[in-house]
Amino acid sequence: MRVNCGLLALLVLGSLRYGLASDYYSSITGLEQLLHTEHILMSDLSSQLDVAKNVLLHLERELSAIKVEHALAAKGLENYLTNPVNIYRLMKRLHTDWQQLDSRVQQMSRQLRFNITQHDGLSFPSQEDVDGAALALVRLQSTYKLDVAQVAAGILNGIKYGTDMSWQDCFVLGQQLFEMEDYNNTKVWLRESMERLRRHQPRPTTPEPALLNSMEMVAQSLFRMGDFDTAYELSQRVLELDPSRIRNWHLGDKAANVVHDEGDDGAHQRHAAGYRLSQEFNHYEKVCRGEVSPSAAQQRLLRCRYTRGRHAYRVLAPFKLEEHNHDPLVVSYHDMLRPQQIDELREMAVPHMQRSTVNPLPGGQRMKSAFRVSKNAWLPYNTHPMMGRMLRDVGDATGLDMTYCEQLQVANYGVGGHYEPHWDFFRDTRHYPAAEGNRIATAIFYLSDVEQGGATAFPFLNFGVRPQLGNILFWYNLHRSSDKDYRTKHAGCPVLKGSKWIANIWIHEATQTFARPCDVFRDNEVSVGYDIIK
């Protein structure tokens, strides 16, 4: 990498050429002026070279750090890409850091041909992607009670998975959270950024002016919000990095001048935000962390056993059944799919994957939501004979009639991906055809193991089921009387480390009269009251 000194020299010579002529040789005074002129030019050129060297040194350090990340990824791509810290930093690098590197190189020399816009076919994350990665980190931090310093160090639940976040990474994350008005998490990430900056050795080079401007803006807004300690510490770090800057407390206050543009999904987002502050949501997070469990008396009644279902063939090859709960019934069937079948199913789904959506109102437009962060694909059962066999196996194991089932939904939850507590049955009859009835039962095929997190949690039943490759998780959503069983509210806990793949089959109640007949009396009283958020 060469610095374009030739251009600078031509400019210098041009300025001398068009300067006033003088007989400098006629006196020593004139020669002293020339020597002084050359000294100024030498100092200027030396200064320019020092700047170029510093830029090159900084670029080399940045490039070396990125090479370290790719070396780690080469050792295990899936392991690397299922680390939430790695994902956030990758998003940040491609969305922000590479733009800054490109700008530095372009400014340093026109002879350098590096330009990230000259490459076709490359993928770059959008701002929405970067914000999503930031929210995933915060979601994991909140759900699993992770220490911010440990997350920044690449440590998840005591296990070191990757390299540390830099102080700049932590600051940019804090700034993102500030822009998203998550002020509590803004403070902890900014403090972690400042702590990492304080410990940084050797002393960091002066950051880009844009970063310093952002630090000043956030500091001043925090000051107006009343967080004087964080604001003061942040402003002091700005002055340490660039002593020539003078604190200016006249910039606008974002917190005091926030314009709330809710858009079409404002009511849904408000409801979700309020729910996350409820005791019920707090209990759900405890289930995800494994802090609650059924009573000893309930667990003593649970068994692992063989069952033949309704098919005579299963006398010779019975299903392996694990009981999780009796009322409502929640069970697992082990080893229902082989790894090769799972690989084929995932390959068929990948080309059709789209961001999962929610439909809060009957007839309303489906929309993306932080309530549900995953991608899914809907596959007809005639796509491949294996899908028909999956449908048949669920029917054989449960005894249910599989005539009315929704298409197979294959879903993938990446790191931080989740689905907040919800019911699978429809509360409004306009959501399903009357001839098919409501969703009587759910069968989830687990198409992957998950290293940490990702359990299917049942908050009202006080347990969660960890994904296990090839297993089916099955439960009834309705009472025998066809009333909704509100105790079956469940959730996909955030994936802390790994990638969660599932395939959902939703079975409807039509034609189940003989497979699951109703009792003489309605049996829904036991679940009344579970539909109220506390």
TrEMBL record:
Belongs to the P4HA family. PANTHER family: PROCOLLAGEN-PROLINE 4-DIOXYGENASE, PROLYL 4-HYDROXYLASE ALPHA SUBUNIT. InterPro entries: Oxoglu/Fe-dep_dioxygenase_dom, P4H_N, P4HA-like, Pro_4_hyd_alph, Pro_4_hyd_alph_FE2OG_OXY, TPR-like_helical_dom_sf, TPR_P4H, TPR_rpt. Residues 42-69 form a coiled coil. It comes from Drosophila hydei (Fruit fly). PROSITE patterns: FE2OG_OXY, TPR. Residues 1-21 form the signal peptide. Its EC number is 1.14.11.2. This is procollagen-proline 4-dioxygenase. TPR repeats lie at residues 212-245. Catalyzes the post-translational formation of 4-hydroxyproline in -Xaa-Pro-Gly- sequences in collagens and other proteins. GO terms for cellular component: endoplasmic reticulum lumen. One of its GO terms (molecular function) is L-ascorbic acid binding. It holds the Pfam family 2OG-FeII_Oxy_3. Residues 404-509 form the Fe2OG dioxygenase domain. Keywords: Coiled coil, Dioxygenase, Endoplasmic reticulum, Glycoprotein, Iron, Metal-binding, Oxidoreductase, Signal, TPR repeat, Vitamin C. Its cofactor is L-ascorbate. The lineage of its organism: Eukaryota, Metazoa, Ecdysozoa, Arthropoda, Hexapoda. It is found in: Endoplasmic reticulum lumen. It comes from the Eukaryota.
